[in-house]
Each structure stands twice: as structure tokens, then as C-alpha cells.
């Protein structure tokens, strides 16, 4: 199918028709707004009120090419090359996870918890950092903090470095393998992580846009060892968390109490916190005094 013309209404009809078997109408309308905003500069109010207006050939071509990729279930963030996260434009590609709303929620919760310390020289590390979206958002909102970000993937760290350069925020990147021993001399006031936590058996409930386009290394763990990353984070914290330090983690919603128990056994006080969808999604911890 081709668009009947360069008229806004005809382009909208084209996108609706092309994507109707892959997305809901609400999702398609949202995608249409994003595509027009990105490629023509026209906001959703304009394309609703002025459907008889025209866009130029270059803008039309970009929308058509993006629609073809959406039809293949490629995530809109990868098509655009970035995701909005905590007020930052984070570069993403197939080598890093696309930041989720729950991870954004985690960052805002951490800032809320730490706002009394915003002028202190905190030392923070983000383990399994991917694009460094967490580390960068914490640096933005806690500017006095010294922030480190670690990942095993050199490709992910390349994207993280581009984000650091683009945003002008000072983050120290480290390459290390949390599962096989990661050595560092510093202690930290805050350890934060959104590690892989989806079990292989949970793949059946996931959408193709995730399974086909996002890095499995950042998503999945073996069913037999679903908490392996949290075990390693716990061991890391035993060595490197300061006396009054805090640990903030995103978790598998089905393993909240098991994950908390893992840390409670090692002299931590903690709570499972729910996200905006009322799912067990975070654990906040501190050392017992």
C-alpha cells in the first residue's frame, strides 16, 4: 500500500492500515503522533486540526520507512535512536535495553529518598548499567554525587559513553563481569542495579518487539538460578557498601520476597516496594546498624 498523497490525513490513514494487525488503534495513534513530531515537527494537536495540510516528500519518506520498521515490530525507540528517560534523551540501539517506565520510577524514588543528601559528596555505582540511563539520571538529579557505571558488554559501554558525551554529565564507566568477579577499590554510599531478572520460562509472555530486538544478555537468567545477579550484588555490597550505605534494586515481580530474603540473610534491612502498576518491582535496602 502507498499513501494516496502527502496530505496529513492520507498519511495517517496509511499508517493505521499498515499497522492495524500489529498494534491496537490507541497504540497506532500514539505512534502517529510520535512520527509526525519527530519527522515533521508537527504536534498531535496540529495533525488533528489540520488534516488537509501537506508534508514534504522527505518527511513523508521518513514516516513511510519508519512505518515499515514498526510493521516488523521494531521498537519505536530504536527507530528514532533514542528514548526519553527522566528528562534526558538517551541514545539506544540493539545493544542496550530500552529504558522502561518502571526503571524511570526507580530513579525518581531514589532521588526522593536521597534528596536530603543532594548536597553531600555521595559515591554511587550502577551495576549492569547498559545505556547508563540510571547513572546519568542520578547524576542529573544529584549533581554533587560521584557516579560510576559498570557493564560487561563493550557494545553497551560504547552507547553509554555516547550518552555521557551527548548529555555532558560526568560518569566514570567501568567494564566488568559481575558474575565472575568484579574488582574495584572504592566503597559506595549507593549501589543501584536493574540486572537481568526475567526467567527463560517467562519468554512466552513477552512481545516480539522485545524478543527480536533487545539484547538477551540484558534480560534473561536461567530458570534454575533466577537470583544469580542479586546474589552477586549482595556479595559486592558486603565488600563495597559504606557503613550507612543503601542498595536500590529493580526486581522480578514474582520473586520479591525471595529476593528480599537473600539480602536479609546477610545483615540488611529492606523493603519490597510496589510500582505504579501495584507490582512488586523494587527492593530498598540498608545495612543493619
Task: Describe the protein.
The longest helix has 16 residues, at 25-40. 40% of the residues lie in helices and 20% in strands. Helix 6 packs parallel to helix 7 (133-141). Helix 9 (208-211) links the parallel strand 7 and strand 8. The strands form three sheets. The protein has a seven-stranded mixed beta sheet, sandwiched between helices. The chain has helices at residues 8-19, 25-40, 44-49, 57-71, 76-80, 101-114, 133-141, 154-167, 208-211, 228-240, 256-264, and strands at residues 82-85, 88-91, 123-127, 146-151, 172-175, 188-193, 198-199, 220-221, 241-250, 268-274, 280-287. It is α/β, with parallel strands linked by helices and 289 residues long.
Label this structure with key terms:
7-stranded mixed beta sheet; two-stranded antiparallel ribbon; single chain; 11 strands; 11 helices; alpha/beta; about 290 residues
- Range of strand content: 15-25%
Q: Gap between N and C termini, in Å? A: 67 Å
Multimerization status: single chain
Structural class: alpha/beta
What is the tally of beta strands?
11
Output mean pLDDT.
95
State the share of residues found in helices, binned by percent.
Answer: 40-55%
- What value does the Rg take, in angstroms? 21 Å
Strand order of the largest sheet: 5-4-3-6-9-11-10
Sum up the overall morphology in one term: elongated
* Count of helical stretches: 11
Helix/strand order:
HHHHHEEHEHEHEEEHEHEHEE
Low-confidence stretches: none
Largest sheet: 7 strands, mixed
Amino acid at each position: 500500500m502507498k499513501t494516496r498523497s502527502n496530505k496529513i490525513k492520507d498519511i495517517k490513514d496509511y499508517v493505521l492500515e499498515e499497522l492495524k494487525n500489529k498494534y491496537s488503534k490507541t497504540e497506532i495513534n500514539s505512534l502517529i503522533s510520535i512520527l509526525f513530531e519527530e519527522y515533521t515537527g508537527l504536534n498531535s494537536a496540529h495533525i488533528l486540526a489540520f488534516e488537509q495540510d501537506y508534508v514534504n516528500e522527505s518527511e513523508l519518506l521518513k514516516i513511510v520507512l519508519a512505518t515499515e520498521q514498526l510493521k516488523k515490530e521494531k521498537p519505536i525507540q530504536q527507530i528514532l535512536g533514542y528514548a526519553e528517560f527522566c528528562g534526558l534523551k538517551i541514545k539506544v540501539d540493539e545493544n542496550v535495553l530500552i529504558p522502561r517506565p518502571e526503571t524511570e520510577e526507580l530513579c525518581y524514588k531514589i532521588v526522593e529518598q536521597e534528596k536530603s543528601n543532594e548536597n553531600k559528596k555521595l559515591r554511587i555505582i550502577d551495576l549492569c548499567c547498559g545505556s547508563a540511563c540510571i547513572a546519568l539520571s542520578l547524576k542529573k538529579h544529584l549533581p554533587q554525587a560521584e557516579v560510576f557505571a559498570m557493564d560487561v558488554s563493550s557494545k553497551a559501554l560504547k552507547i553509554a559513553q555516547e550518552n555521557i558525551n551527548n548529555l555532558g554529565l560526568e560518569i566514570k564507566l567501568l567494564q566488568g563481569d559481575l558474575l565472575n568477579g568484579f574488582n574495584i577499590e572504592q566503597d559506595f554510599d549507593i549501589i543501584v542495579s536493574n540486572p537481568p531478572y526475567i526467567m527463560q520460562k517467562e519468554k512466552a509472555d513477552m512481545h516480539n518487539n522485545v524478543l527480536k530486538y533487545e539484547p538477551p544478555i540484558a534480560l534473561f537468567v536461567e530458570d534454575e538460578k533466577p537470583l544469580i545477579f542479586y546474589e552477586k550484588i549482595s556479595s559486592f555490597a558486603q565488600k563495597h557498601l559504606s557503613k550507612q550505605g543503601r542498595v536500590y534494586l529493580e526486581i522480578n515481580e514474582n520473586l520479591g520476597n525471595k529476593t528480599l530474603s537473600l539480602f536479609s540473610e546477610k545483615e540488611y534491612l529492606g523493603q519490597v516496594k510496589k510500582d505504579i502498576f501495584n507490582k512488586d518491582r523494587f527492593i530498598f535496602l540498608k545495612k543493619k546498624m
